Amino acid sequence: MDLNGIREVRAWIAEVGPFDLRTFMLSNVSIAEAGAVAMLVLPRFIEYRGCVLLDFTFDEAGVDLWLERLQGERKAVEAMVNHVHLWDFFAPRAEAENEVLKDLGRRMVASWEAMALLQFPQKSFTVKFDDGSNDYGPTLAISTA
Asked: Per its UniProt entry, which superkingdom is the organism in (predicted)?
């Protein structure tokens, strides 16, 4: 992941010197921010009516509605409910930021699958990623395989 094109990183380097992850985070990232990002990157999952769902997108009434609309097709419901647009969490202001966001999304494919398998080792999962060319910005979706 190349952060050198991001304005805040360039400004920090100009003021402090070479990029150092520990020092940069200590100076710029609060515990609340780090925790929120961790919840997105390393999510928890719940099981509801046979579906494995991201806990931060779970809404019982919404899932029930999708189960009805999609005639109980569990994988289709999971793909719909577990469909996350990174632009709903981050607002890139420049192309360099959008590129880093795409790279974050690509990395999240592995972390989402690992977290799902950790919580549901008897299941297998498929994580799909779109870099934004076919969707509303970088997008991930996870469903059982």
From this structure: Bacteria
Backbone angles phi, psi at 140, to 5 degrees: -125, 150
Which amino acid type is present at position 50?
A: G
Closest CA to 141 of 88, 105, 91, 94: 105
Tokens, residue 131: 């870099």
- Whether the model clears a pTM of 0.90, i.e. scores above it, the answer is yes
Q: What 3-state DSSP class applies to 89?
A: coil
SS3 62: helix
Single out the residue of 20, 19, 29, 2 nearest to residue 97, CA to CA: 2
Q: Give residue-wise pLDDT tens across range 80-113.
A: 999 999 999 999 999 999 999 999 999 999 999 9
DSSP state of 88: G
Average pLDDT score over residue span 61-66: 97
- Decide: residue 96, CB within 10 A, 0-12 exposed, 13-18 middle, 19+ buried: middle
- Terminal C-alpha separation, the chain: 29
Tokens of 45: 């999952």
Q: What's the longest Cα–Cα distance across the chain? A: 58
